[in-house]
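[step 3/7] fold_predict: job queued, chain A
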Amino acid sequence: MTGADPTRQRPTASYEADPSQVDRVLLLYSGGLDTSVMLKWIQDSYDAEVVTLTVNLGQPGEDYAVIEDKAKRLGAVECHVVDAREQFAAEFLTPAIKANAVYGNGYPLFTALGRPLIAQLAVEYARKSHCDTIAHGCTGKGNDQVRIEATVATLAPELKTIAPVRSWAMGRDEEIAYARDHGIPVKGGTEVAPYSIDDNLWGRSSEGRWIEDLERAPEDDVFQLVTRPEDAPDEAQVVKIGFEAGLPVSIDGERLGLVDLLERAGELGMRHGVGIVDHIEDRIVGLKVRDIYEVPAAALILTAHEELERLVGTIHQNQFKPQMDQKWGYLVYAGLWWEPLREDLDAYMSAVNARVTGEIGLRLYKGSVRVVTRSSPNAVYDASLASFAESGEELFSQTASPGFIELWSLQSRLAHRLRERDEG
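[step 4/7] structure written:
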């Protein structure tokens, strides 16, 4: 390693660890190159014991037994693997669905929703394992460092944090060399992974390589989750998603638990090429970046939920709630999951969603998802009122319209005349 020794640097924040007081570290461990190098490096640089925590939020293709075995072989004194899919769905995705949560008109916050739960579990297991410090593998350019450290500082002021990747002077090549020198297995040998990947039940993100070149169109090798729309089936499929009190409970009439339902929705979206988002994003650390997201489950569920919400809401609710949705999404994106306002907004979201019950039909075809059918016992809709063929006089008198129009347009007409007077 080159450059200044980060274990000798003075902390700049109250929750950062004093290197001289780091004895037992809880490391958020994924089994990848960064955290595997960290596991060994922390032992050597801090002369500290390391406990690992690996959290399953629905990442596809992971072998957690292999990850645990690798951590033990690299010197971890304790290894914890937690299946948190049900908790993630119930406590984090549930309010996100009710809030139609996206950031920047495209990103459905899957990483932002996962990080506070991971950090919360880190606090829990750090206390159980008598650790004094929590270590994570976030860089200094991303939002995840904010989400994790803000959670630790909020929930456990007695615990400190270290972020080796943010402070050490190793690039990717140096990490691979360090791994080779210390007998740390590297997936694919010494080949550098082309993208930085993060995924869970709610979606997948890819960064790096050509993605940083704004003039380049997406390359096919980035799509490891969603079928390329060009290769999706030539026949459209209509999928019906049922909701109760704002939460999805069934697909095509079959009731499913939330985790199983999200996985099923993801499979349907993947098959039809639905959920690809090529996104320019304003990070809270000041950077503007490009991400490629694959979010098939979110694309189906949020599209259906938002449509059903509009069906049962009044015009005033439907104009106001998106403003609250945007604020909720921003707080979560910005790493402020524990902000009281977010909890206050949850109460509003739950109240609005109490009547969001019904079924929405979605047409999936080669990358597109479109609402085609709607039904709800609470719909603020009456076919007789909407129809030109029926009068519906008991609720709507067409002969009353002229008086309404005169009053509705009164101020606009007066203002227009005054403007004409001044201009003339």
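[step 5/7] annotate
The longest helix spans residues 110-128.
The radius of gyration is 26 Å.
exit 0
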